[in-house]
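dude i think i finally got it to work??
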Amino acid sequence: MGSNGDITQMLVLAGAGDAAARQQLAAAIYADLRHIAHRQLAGQWREQTMGTTGLVHECYLRMSGAVAPNDRGHFFALASRVMRQVIVDYARERLAQKRGGGERALALDEVDAAELREAERYAALDDALGALMRLDERRARVVECRFFAGLTEEETAEAMQTSLRSVQRDWQLAREWLRAELEA
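look at this
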């Protein structure tokens, strides 16, 4: 991912209205956003179902005009959360189509069973993460940074402004809690 200081500086300048910094920022983070998007889609969705580029563009659209991130870590944590929301929205839409969703019923050959299973898994993971968020927001944020954004433990600690040991402990406990929740 891009240089920590450079991206943070561009975020500050872009947030202050500097158009040139905004363009530089977009160019600097595009590859990183694609990496996060690819990571989120890997094993979850096939490229033809929801592409990396489409996910990055939808994320960028949803983030523009939203909360201004403080620094690089905060930016990528937000981007990861927005991408997860985009994927969950898509998954829930697919599941609604499967059930009719107020529309005409789809023929079996129009519905990819594997895609629907993935949509159900992703929706279940989102529900479990929402439950974890209500119980322990910090642990849920660690999951978002580590699993969805692909940040290292050190980057997660920096993004969350907490100690590395806290991130390690929260990551372990959150994974155990999510595993038990999803198996139940």
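DSSP finds eight helices and no strands in the chain.
im so relieved honestly
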